[in-house]
Amino acid sequence: MGEQVIALAGTDSLDDALTRKKAVLFTPAQQAIHLAIPTPEGEAVAFSQSRLLAGELTFADKGVGINALQGGS
Q1: Which residues contact 55 (CB under 8 A, 6 or more apart)?
Q2: Is 80 exceeded by the pLDDT of residue 71?
Q3: What whole-number distance in Å separates Cα of residue 68 and Cα of residue 66?
Q4: Residue 63: other Cβ atoms inside 10 A
Q5: Whole-structure pTM value
Q6: DSSP string spanning 12-66?
Q7: CA separation (Å) from 22 to 15, 26, 48, 51?
Q8: What total of structural domains would you count in the chain?
Q9: Which of 31, 37, 40 is nearest to 60 (CA)?
């Protein structure tokens, strides 16, 4: 199994391969969404799409636009 991960990641060691594969589990937009969800959840059970989007923009990498965060291209 380790050899397959190393081959897929294109590295020489399993540690490097796992680190590289973990880094690309989410697209930048998906990562921003994933990191932003706990913020409004911690403040209230119900939260609006605008509050979630504001949190996503806080965590988004440069160049990740509102369209990508809302599921567009």
Answers
A1: 35, 36, 37, 39, 40
A2: no
A3: 5
A4: 7
A5: 0.33
A6: SSHHHHHHHHHHTSS-HHHHHHHHHTHHHHHH-SS--HHHHHHHHHHHPPTT--H
A7: 11, 8, 30, 28
A8: 1
A9: 31
**Cβ neighbours, 10 Å, residue 17:** 20
Token match 């706990």: residue?
38
The string of pLDDT tens digits covering residues 23-60 is 777 777 888 877 777 766 556 555 577 777 788 888 88
Type of residue at 21: K
Residue 66 is which amino acid? I
Give yes or no for a contact between 8 and 20, defined as CB atoms under 8 angstroms apart: no
Dihedral pair phi/psi, residue 60, rounded to 5°: -70, 145
Range of the domain at 30: 2-69
